[in-house]
Design a protein that fits this description.
Layout lengths: L1 E4 H9 L13 H27 L4 E6 L2 E2 L7 E2 L1 E6 L5 E9 L18 H13 L4 H4 L8 H4 L5 H5 L5 E6 L13 E3 L11 E4 H6 L6 E4 L2 H13 L5
Helix pairs in contact: 2-8
Length: 237
Amino acid sequence: MIEINIEELLNLYDVVNTCEGPLDSSFDSHVSAITGMIGEDLVLGLFQHYWDNKRRGNTPEILSYDCKIEMPSKRKLDAWVICKTSRGVHTLYNTEIKNWSSYSRGMRTYEQPENDAEATERWQRLIETSNRNESLSKVTFAARRSDIEHKRDMSGSKVGKLTPKPLLCMWTPIATRESGNQCFFAEMDGDSYLHGVSVFSASLYLRSLRDKKTVNIKAPRAEHRLRQRERIVGLCN
């Protein structure tokens, strides 16, 4: 588990700043460096936290970080995730993660998105201007389920005959009018190439937890990297 300071993380990703240091007037490089260490695991860990906290009895589990696409084989998604509701309903997601911050997408500061039309506008701009960009549309491609079925652990038995569903987990504060600006929604516009894709906004979810200072999430790979960093690098007084 890793502990996240909610306010500091929102400021890092959603508030456009400049570095006060003498060697770099841009904050982009710092955001990119931190993202490289914890980015995908951060967003995926927050999705698991969201699912686990929807109600008691819900359980999310990462089955694999290896999620290939049927054709062409070189393309891949980021994870297989299986989610169980308190009523025993299982959903298998082939998952793509995008930890785009305000910096990486050229967006302006986004400070108060609660019940704000800006979250909807941002989502519309994203899917309209991406022009079927593969970085988003590949989540709709057929995932190679045989990879998860043939794993030597219990993953195959957990998958059973479930039909995979596409899930897009993003940092960006996005929503739709139909979802009431909720952090988890399905894109149901029949004219959109992402029609039927479930979407999670990590930024909006964290903002719903603003009464808390920190949140603990499952992020095993990021935890391993942080421990390695501590063994290699330390600060001197």
